[in-house]
Amino acid sequence: MAYKEKQTSTSAGSFVLRRHTEVQEFVCDRDLLPRTAKIVVHWTTPEGIERKICNSCYGFLVSHP
Question: Number of C-alpha atoms within 13 angstroms, CB side, residue 46?
């Protein structure tokens, strides 16, 4: 496996944090900024929409219900 997973849920939806062994390049679906990180968060909104977000946006969503 190329990554480790951690799952969590809040009123903002469910989150799967994936810590990759290599740096990943992606565009955060929440703030629309290009990111380079080992941690990529897969967010499923309460409406069932799946998004790939950065660790910063994850932290904001978890701390602001």
Answer: 5
pLDDT in tens, 35-44: 999 999 999 9
Beta strands in 11-63 (DSSP E): 13-27, 34-44, 50-53
pTM, entire model = 0.89
Among 3, 48, 57, residue whose Cα is nearest residue 27? 57
CB 54 within 8 A of CB 35: yes
Task: Output the six-digit token pair for 2.
Answer: 């190329």
Q: For the chain, how are helix, strand and coil distributed in percent, rounded to 5?
A: 15, 60, 30
- 53 by Cβ neighbours in 10 Å (0-12 / 13-18 / 19+) ranks as buried
